TrEMBL record:
Similarity section: Belongs to the ELP6 family.
Pathway named in the protein's UniProt entry: tRNA modification; 5-methoxycarbonylmethyl-2-thiouridine-tRNA biosynthesis
Designated name of the protein: Elongator complex protein 6
Family annotation (InterPro entries): ELP6 (IPR018627), P-loop_NTPase (IPR027417)
Signal peptide residue numbers: none
Any matching Pfam family: ELP6
GO biological process: tRNA wobble uridine modification
Gene source species: Erpetoichthys calabaricus
GO cellular component: elongator holoenzyme complex
Length: 255
C-alpha cells in the first residue's frame, strides 16, 4: 500500500466518531483543513466551520447555499464586535462577545456551534453525522481568552458533537515549541490527550524546498489503550488543487 493511499485510508474510513487534532509548526497546515472539509462534505455530513483565520471565499459556496455548511467568519465578526455600526449587536448574544466584554466566557460561541449542528428530523434524513471544524483555535488565545475557558469550550463541544450526536471534531492549533508559550502548550497537550487522531505538520529544518514542503506525522491512538499507537511519517508537497504524500526521501527530486 502506498504512503499516500495509507494516509487517506487512515484519515477517512476510520474517522467517524472521533476527535482529530491538527498541529502546525514552522509551516502552514491549512491544507489539512481543506482536506477534511472536502472529505466531510463529500460524505454528506452537516458541517459547522469556525473560520477564525480565513475568509469564506476560500471555501465551498455551494455547500453553504444548500444548508450543508455553516461557516462562521471570525475576521468579520471580530470587526463587527470591535467597531459596531449600531447598538443592534447588543440586542442578541454574539459568538465573540468576549471581545467587548472581557469578563465573559465562550458560552455564546458554544451556543452558536450547538444551534448550528442541532439536527431536526429533516436534517437527519438529509445529512450524515455532524462535524465541527475549528481553524485556528490558537487565535482565541491570541485574543486574550484564558486557556481554561478555551478547554471548557472544547469540552462542551465534544459532549454536544461527539458524545451526544456521534459526530466528529477537527481542531487546528498552531505550535511553536521554541517560543515558550505556556497557554498554547497547555491547550495543545490537553487536546493531544483527548484526540484519537493526531496530525503534526512540520516545516523542513533545511528551509524551503521546491519539491518537498514539509513533513507530517500521523498518529492513531487506541482509545481503550489495549494496543500501541499507530504512527506513520510522510513528507508532502502542496499543489494548486491538492496535496501529494510520499515516504521520506522518495520525492521526485531525490529519485
Amino acid at each position: 500500500r502506498s504512503p499516500e493511499l495509507l494516509f487517506y485510508v487512515d484519515t477517512t474510513e476510520q474517522l467517524f466518531g472521533q476527535c482529530v487534532l491538527l498541529s502546525e509548526s514552522k509551516t502552514d497546515g491549512s491544507f489539512l483543513i481543506h482536506h477534511f472539509l472536502s472529505f466531510f462534505l463529500k460524505a454528506q455530513c452537516k458541517v459547522c466551520f469556525l473560520g477564525l483565520v480565513q475568509s469564506f471565499s476560500h471555501y465551498s459556496t455551494v455547500a453553504r447555499e444548500k444548508g450543508q455548511l455553516v461557516f462562521f467568519e471570525g475576521l468579520r465578526n471580530s470587526l463587527d464586535m470591535l467597531l459596531p455600526e449600531s447598538d443592534a449587536s447588543d440586542a442578541e448574544p454574539q459568538p465573540l462577545s468576549f471581545l467587548r466584554w472581557p469578563s465573559t466566557d465562550l458560552r455564546n460561541l458554544f451556543d452558536f456551534v450547538n444551534s448550528s449542528l442541532s439536527q431536526s428530523e429533516n436534517d437527519m434524513s438529509r445529512w450524515a453525522s455532524p462535524v465541527l471544524l475549528i481553524d485556528d483555535l490558537s487565535v482565541l488565545l491570541s485574543l486574550g481568552v484564558n486557556p481554561t475557558a478555551v478547554l471548557d469550550f472544547i469540552h462542551y463541544c465534544r459532549m454536544a458533537v461527539c458524545s451526544k450526536q456521534q459526530g466528529n471534531m477537527v481542531t487546528l492549533v498552531h505550535n511553536e515549541d521554541d517560543l515558550g508559550d505556556e497557554d498554547c502548550d497547555l491547550v495543545l497537550h490537553a487536546l493531544t490527550h483527548q484526540s484519537s487522531l493526531i496530525l503534526q505538520v512540520h516545516g523542513l529544518n533545511t528551509g524551503y524546498c521546491r519539491d518537498v514542503h514539509g513533513q507530517i506525522q500521523l498518529r492513531w491512538k487506541d482509545k481503550f489503550q489495549l494496543k500501541r499507537d499507530h504512527t506513520h511519517v510522510f513528507q508532502y508537497k502542496v499543489h494548486d488543487k491538492g496535496v501529494s504524500f510520499f515516504a521520506p526521501g522518495t520525492s521526485s527530486a531525490v529519485l
